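Hey L., structure's done. Input below.
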Amino acid sequence: MVLYVYAITRQPVTANAESVVCGGGVCAVYTPVDFTQETIDQRAGDLEWIGAIGYRHQSVIAGLMEQTTVIPLRAFTLFSDETALREHLIAQSGVFTKILDRLEGKREYTLRIEFDAQKWSDALAGRVESLRALHAEIDAASSGKAFLLRKKLDEEKKRASREAEQQLVAEIEREVLDKLSCDVVSESRVQREGAFPQINVLINRDEESRLQELHASLNERYANEGVTLAITGPWPPYTFANA
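Output:
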């Protein structure tokens, strides 16, 4: 048996009948399991097995969140026994304490920025000067030249869309920082392997209503450009649980 560790906490609390070990003023919530890293590697393609463990991992941390501040650990964090785990807590107690201090009383939310492809494409000319100039040139050109310019416009739109998207994310991030006392981490499409960009926000619990108001305001502001912000959370502070 080895120890599967879910999270680091300040108090010795548990969720779903898990166990806890403490050292150096911090605690780790764990459960004994009968698999090893070798087992995990062998079953990496077993989505049902991986998914069930991931679901339980999230469920335990969500339960802990309702009781105390947590540093959520990644799934499949394993220790050989309680002695090794306690020694790790003692050795890293200073780091863990600083992270817990920063996370105290806060929760993570996500603003995912989604695009209506056609509306966003149409709105680009309002954001990008080079596209406005091309539109004007097409309107004044002969039919043959206009045909070539429209092909150029399509290529320019692809480039401009990436730049405008980065500009948009920066705008929303500034608005969040202006309206809320929070930490922010933005993730682009590249970082998210092609998925919609998103902004992760770590806020005090008493600011959650202000985040909801800001979410509604931003959706209203960007609706004409085909931009919608989806809000999810609260989540365990995975994005911010580092030194």
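The longest helix spans residues 143-179. The chain is about 50% helix and 25% strand.

-- N.
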